[in-house]
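Minutes, project check-in
Item: structure for the 143-residue chain
Input as provided by the requester:
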Amino acid sequence: MSRRFLVPVMVAACSVISGDLDRIVAIEIVGSLSPQIAVGDTLQLRARALTAAGDSVAEALIVWQLLDLDSGQVGFTLDTATGVVAGESAGSGRVAARVETLQSGIITITVVAPPAPSVRHGTRAERFDRRAAPLRSAMGGDP
């Protein structure tokens, strides 16, 4: 009689353990934890939910969250559904991914001003023509 009782208990214990291995226990950020983008650029944040067995859960609903709501210095917008960041002005802010009650590590995004365009006057041909003008003039050509 005791053997019949032990077998169902062992099966039940195994199913509980295997069920726990499928539960989402972590969120892994894919990419840099401190990316930098220029004003006007966009960045696609990526994360994946992991089970206790270490498997990725493709159907997990990952929501992105801006952690610095009241700083006024963030410099970007965040689409919380897609994880797309758009640089709007110089600044930085912190973002995290969430799946239900779990939160990922923190990503610190820095937005920098785009480099100033180099100042070039005229086309290459026009610049060459300006340099050649004194030579043509000395040779009796165009003034």
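Outcome recorded: The CA atoms of residues 37 and 76 lie 10 Å apart.
No further action items on this chain.
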